[in-house]
């Protein structure tokens, strides 16, 4: 009995680690009503099903500094792209 469905693409094995350091952002747009922002960064590699990694949230700033390190598993270095999204946290 096959373990994987024949229609599912084969799972690629990791070939390495990508070390990423999120340092800072400058002059972000005001996203909150009171004229500030609560930014954080989401990091992921294209083609991954794993949830994105996230920095800590920096409250009430448009010039955040994180200095946070991340390791992402690379499975296909020729096709995978590092995606960084700066988001605003909302306490909803």
Care to describe what's here?
The radius of gyration is 17 Å and the shape is elongated. It is mostly beta strands and 92 residues long. The chain has no helices and 5 strands. The termini are far apart. It has one domain (16-88): Immunoglobulin-like. The strands form 2 sheets. It has a 3-stranded antiparallel sheet, with no helix packed on it. Strands 1-4 form a two-stranded antiparallel sheet.
Mean pLDDT comes to 87
Sheet with the most strands, sense and barrel status: 3 strands, antiparallel
Q: What Rg, in angstroms, do the CA atoms define?
A: 17 Å
Number of strands: 5
Helix content: under 10%
Please give the count of helices.
0
- The strand line-up of the biggest sheet is 3-2-5
InterPro entries: C2_dom, C2_domain_sf, Synaptotagmin_plant
Pfam family, one: C2
Organism: Vitis vinifera (Grape)
GO molecular function: lipid binding
SSE order and pairing:
Layout: E1 16-24, E2 39-45, E3 53-54, E4 65-74, E5 82-88
Antiparallel strand pairs: 1-4, 2-3, 2-5
List keywords for this structure.
92 residues, mainly beta, Immunoglobulin-like, 3-stranded antiparallel sheet, elongated
Quick summary of this structure?
By secondary structure, the chain is mostly beta strands.
